[in-house]
Fold this sequence. Notes:
Largest sheet: 4 strands, antiparallel
Structural class: alpha+beta
Number of strands: 15
Strand content: 15-25%
Oligomer: single chain
Strand order of the largest sheet: 5-4-14-15
Number of helices: 10
Shape: globular
Radius of gyration: 20 Å
Order of helices and strands: HEEHHEHHEEEHEHEEEHEEEHHEE
Amino acid sequence: MLGSILPLAAYRVTRAVLSGAEPASSAVSSPAASAQPPSAVPSADAETFLVEDQATGQVLELSRQEYVLGAVAAEMPVSWPDEALKAQAVAAHSYALYCRDHTTLQSGAWLTADPARRQGCLTEPVLRSYWGTAYEQNYARLSALVDEVLDEILYYENAPACASYFAISNGQTEASENVWGSALPYLISVDSSTDRSADNYEYTVTFSAEQVQQVLAGLGISADLAALEGWFGPAALTSAGYTKTVTVCGQTVTGTTLRRALGLRSTCFTVQYQSGNFSFTTRGYGHGVGLSQWGTKAMAEQGKSYADILAHYYPGTQLSIHSFSYTRTISGVISARECAPHICMVSASSPASLSM
């Protein structure tokens, strides 16, 4: 559900593109990406979206409306404010097109999902099961909202934006260089302080010393069970307050590496040792780069439009209406700051009139 899969997918695809490495395989949705820009980046929308079902290996051919609606349903409760759901729809749509332009999946699909586990994108049979007797009502509400923005895409330099998103920040979103190693001018740290009131904003998980030792061994770190209290040393934080690096048994480990190894909800964490156990307390949920879903909900409740929300979380991009015959900018001015040529992210400014 909220922040469950596509944020992880965005993390992996963006990390793969920026680092030049293939994304790691995973039991969750994990679109592949090319380390090099395509020779000609398509700017067009698509009528059919190709999604690999991770459970079966089948490539699903979904209509644009089916995909965007299914992605929004997988990521946000249908009861959330209209403008939040529309912002999520535009982000999911744009992100899928970015995956299309960079996919290296052998199946030819753009990205992967696991509908049966309600991850990534929910197909109609899954939605019927998930919503039960509320299916007709929920579908009517969500499909109407999706249809309002179905022709709108976030662009950066005329290419669909890699509009990553996640569940909850620590109160500030994170800059891309602190997660993926490369600075992107439209993925900077912005305020999302309303996230601090999110459900499960702070979460503590406890591991035994033996469990932590096993995880560290997988990172090539030898941990002495006779010196437990000295395993974790000082942490260096990013300007947004996330763990950049931490000393572990005398070695420096990045916060993202430790988060993945331990399955922590966020790289904003602290660790305490007591009586043979290590307790990790996290703040927020997700990689922290791009759009905060909880922050999106809060901004919508404050009266902000979906375009305002996208502008806040993705500065320097354009929100445009696209058809197969034309593309027309409806909001935003592309930032003059430089951008990596093979990756696009978003943030639009105040919307112009949608009238023709």
